[in-house]
From TrEMBL:
Residues 102-276 form the Vanillate O-demethylase oxygenase-like C-terminal catalytic domain. It comes from the Bacteria. The keyword Oxidoreductase applies. This is Aromatic ring-hydroxylating dioxygenase subunit alpha. Pfam families: VanA_C. Keywords: Dioxygenase, Oxidoreductase. The keyword Iron does not apply. PANTHER family: 3-KETOSTEROID-9-ALPHA-MONOOXYGENASE, OXYGENASE COMPONENT, IRON-SULFUR DOMAIN CONTAINING PROTEIN. GO terms for molecular function: dioxygenase activity.
Length: 290
């Protein structure tokens, strides 16, 4: 059964969604799904890209940003989110491959925002026992840009990045730019002033399925591209095991569905924000009254 996005789910329909990496596109048609709709992607000999939804003749909006191809089933902003660091000439763009996940895309975003699982899921990489405490941090909804941010996040990590030598106390800033797009800015082992930037662009294909497109903007002159991709994929595949075993697969938005702790402040803010935006796709639970 096809589960298309509700026509009233404007926060999802009117967002830009990454639907693949530009480097993988050839001239042969490519087929994918977005919000329960079949899409056909065509790049012609002049490198122009057209995306059409099944049963519709009018092409969808197209944008090429951050190594990804973006589109929307609604009326999106003029361009996808701004990532100023991506324009810095000494940063490396690392597209880490697309990964299918049998879980709601909202679950995948929430997992990306969670520090508490580091020692138990990413043992001896992003965390390790006995240093399991998530220290108090600040979470806010920035109404001027309609984004969620978490600042003053810190966590001790045995190997915060591929280029890291030894453990370090890593600073994090989290940013949720739209329901299925999130980024983190973390302490860079190679530059004391500028953070590495890791983005996760999630393509919701069905309510309980998605495709994740991790992208990194790194200051790293030492590591090979293949090693950087492998390092990030290892971390994400560890997450996928947990994500595909979570129940329900949809993200509950009812505050009574799951009991949060202090470490879940960002998750609570994210769910409240989704509820305020009346997001339905990939979610379950009470919606605010109209």
């Amino acid at each position: 059964m096809t589960h298309r996005a509700d026509q009233n789910d404007c926060a999802v329909l009117d967002s830009w969604h990454a639907v693949g990496f530009l480097e993988t596109l050839g001239t042969a048609p490519t087929h994918t799904r977005l919000l329960g709709v079949d899409l056909t992607i065509q790049r012609n000999v002049d490198a122009q890209i057209t995306i059409r939804a099944q049963g519709h003749d009018t092409p969808l909006p197209v944008a090429e940003r951050y190594g990804c191809l973006w589109t929307s089933l609604g009326t999106p902003p003029a361009t996808p989110l701004a990532i100023p660091e991506a324009d810095e000439p000494d940063r490396r763009l690392v597209c880490c491959g697309s990964i299918d996940v049998h879980a709601s895309g909202l679950r995948v975003v929430e997992n990306f925002l969670d520090m508490a699982h580091f020692p138990f899921v990413h043992t001896n990489i992003l965390g390790a026992e006995p240093q399991t405490e998530v220290l108090r941090y600040h979470t806010e909804s920035r109404r001027d840009v309609d984004e969620i941010w978490a600042t003053d996040c810190r966590f001790h990590q045995p190997q915060a990045a591929l280029s890291a030598v030894g453990g370090q106390d890593t600073g994090y800033i989290y940013r949720v730019a739209s329901p299925f797009v999130t980024l983190l800015y973390k302490t860079c082992p190679n530059d004391t002033l500028r953070p590495d930037v890791i983005a996760l662009f999630v393509q919701p294909t069905e309510p309980e399925r998605c495709r994740a497109h991790p992208v990194m903007f790194l200051i790293d002159d030492f590591s090979t591209q293949a090693d950087l991709i492998q390092f990030q994929q290892k971390i994400f595949l560890q997450d996928r095991i947990i994500l595909e075993n979570q129940r329900p697969r949809l993200l509950p938005l009812d505050a009574r569905a799951e009991i949060p702790t202090r470490a879940d402040s960002l998750s609570v803010t994210y769910r409240r924000w989704l509820k305020q935006k009346q997001v339905r796709y990939g979610a379950t639970g009470a919606l605010p009254a109209a």
